[in-house]
Specification:
By secondary structure, the chain is an alpha/beta fold. It has three domains: about 5-145 and about 275-340, FAD/NAD(P)-binding domain, CATH 3.50.50.60; about 160-270, FAD/NAD(P)-binding domain; about 345-460, Enolase-like, domain 1 (2-Layer Sandwich). The protein has helices at about 15-25, 40-45, 45-65, 80-105, 165, 185-195, 215-225, 320-335, 365-370, 385-390, 415-430, 435-440, 450-460; strands at about 5-10, 30-35, 110-115, 115-120, 125, 130-140, 145, 160, 175-180, 200, 230, 235-245, 245-250, 260-265, 265-270, 270-275, 305-310, 350, 355-360, 375-380, 395-400, 405-415. Strands 1, 2, 3, 4, 5, 6 and 17 form a seven-stranded mixed sheet that branches. Strands 8-15-9-10-11 form a five-stranded parallel sheet. α1 runs parallel beside α8 (about 320-335) and α3 (about 45-65) packs parallel to α6 (about 185-195). It is globular. About 45% of the residues are buried.
Length: about 475
């Protein structure tokens, strides 16, 4: 029986990063993955493939709607080859997951393909291709999450689908109905709207992106409506029925009326749930709570002292980069170091266009806590760089403490916000004030100037270009 200093169950961003950091710190490390490719949901059927399709569909929309504005004329009809688009997406996935294989070899990490389950707190049984039993001094549970569903919906994975099936459709839907106005639903909705599908988003809450700052929700809602998407908020879905190639959704609106929607595809995008199926956690003394999450303390340690858990399977936002930070945190904890994670400074991003990104507290949270704050906001349309590229939708909003001027939250929607949010995270990690941000130089012309201008706006209302 092989023995390891640490074994990781699950090879998503949290798991494989934890394995690499453990190996870097001199631990004999094994990683167990039940599927034939490493990378988990994120690399295989989540973050990476969805961004590939978002990129391809964005190119198509630019060519069909905006090239002429730039003096680019393309003779003949521009056509979609969905099969080739999906194939490109898969090639990106294959290259990315292949890169994880390389990193495992480079760091001398043993990889087992199979379902890992606890025999007891120090022994793991592997069922599948690499069937075996191994001994692990420490174990990290990184088994991730799966798409959630509503109890009355039958997911046939043909017409009533999850995000996994939406990434490999063989046709562009005529009418794609999306249950859930969160990140995943909006991203995939934009992909297929660009490709010509009619899109209807049905959201239970009174706005899309209900966990983000209300200003971002309002602005992105405008963008989707401008693209002729139907945004049905405050609608409670009651039933989903398939009849042949047609799907019928019945929902109750805020007036209590039952309304009906018909389309050829229904994407169920109502969040994700922790995945612990087959883990046999109780055999190791690991507790799982009523929400299906593995219970952990502040050190990400489970009720079994030598077993830790990270990522989607524990509390907190289900984000790949949050899982990565936790993977490094546990590895360094096992090595006797004193790592730190500030969960308030884990950014959230929506990869629609314009992109949406945020870090820190929302206005709603600050109001609820009674915190006195001030607001600085700057529109993208006032930027020379935005006008030059034609990306004028959106804004940057900075929330700062009224008395200390410390930045408490940054919320942005616009071109390249997924990248721009890193500046806000950096500033907040160093507890910068709005004036601090306003006083360091930003290259001109750039989208990043919106951050400086919003900081100026929060500092005695002195934005220079608005």
């Amino acid at each position: 029986m092989k023995s390891y200093d640490v074994a990781i169950i699950g090879s998503g961003p949290g798991g494989y990063v934890a394995a690499i950091r453990c190996a870097q710190l001199g631990m004999k490390t094994a990683i167990i993955e039940k599927y034939s490719t490493l990378g988990g949901t994120c690399l295989n059927v989540g973050c990476i493939p969805s961004k590939a399709l978002l990129s391809s569909s964005h190119h198509y929309e630019e060519a069909t709607k905006h090239f002429e504005d730039h003096g680019i004329e393309i003779p003949g009809e521009i056509k979609i080859n969905l099969e080739k688009m999906i194939a490109r997406k898969q090639a990106v996935v294959d290259q990315t997951t292949g890169g994880i294989d390389f990193l495992m070899k480079k760091n001398k990490i043993d990889v087992y393909e199979g379902l890992g389950s606890f025999k007891d707190a120090t022994h793991i049984t592997i069922e599948g291709k690499d069937a075996d039993e191994i001994e692990a001094k420490n174990t990290i549970i990184a088994t991730g999450s799966k798409p959630s569903n509503l109890p009355f919906i039958n997911l046939d994975k043909e017409r009533v689908i999850t995000s996994t099936e939406a990434l490999k459709l063989k046709e562009v839907p005529k009418h794609l109905m999306i249950i859930g106005g969160g990140v995943i639903g909006l991203e995939l909705g934009q992909v297929y709207r660009r490709l010509g599908a009619e899109v209807t988003v049905i959201e239970y809450m009174d706005r899309i992106l209900p966990t983000m700052d209300a200003g971002l929700s309002k602005e992105l809602n405008k963008v989707f409506k401008k693209a002729k998407c139907s945004m049905m908020v405050s609608h409670k879905v009651q039933s989903v029925e398939r009849k042949g190639d047609e799907v019928i959704i019945k929902a109750e609106n805020k007036k209590g009326e039952v309304v009906e929607f018909k389309g050829d595809y229904c994407l169920v995008s109502v969040g994700r749930r922790p995945y612990t199926d087959g883990l046999n956690a109780e055999a190791a003394g690991v507790k799982i709570n009523d929400r299906g999450q593995v219970e952990v303390n502040d050190h990400l340690q489970t009720s079994a002292s030598n077993i830790y858990a990270i990522g989607d399977v524990v509390r907190g936002a289900m984000l790949a980069h949050k899982a990565e930070e936790e993977g490094v945190f546990v590895a360094e904890t096992l090595a006797g170091q004193k790592p730190h994670i500030d969960y308030n400074l884990i950014p959230g991003v929506v990869y629609t266009w314009p992109e949406v990104a945020a870090v820190g507290k929302t206005e709603e949270e600050l109001k609820a806590s009674g915190t006195e704050y001030k607001v600085g906001q700057f529109p993208f349309r006032a930027l020379g760089r935005a006008r030059a590229s034609g990306d004028i939708d959106g804004f940057v909003k900075i929330l700062a403490d009224t008395s200390t001027d410390e930045v408490l939250g940054v919320h942005m929607i616009g071109a390249r916000c997924a990248d721009l949010i890193a500046e806000a995270v950096t500033a907040m990690e160093f507890r910068a004030s709005a004036e601090d941000i306003s006083r360091y130089s930003h290259a001109h012309p750039t989208f990043a100037e919106a951050i400086k201008e919003a900081a100026l706006a929060a500092t005695d209302d002195r934005a220079l270009h608005a």
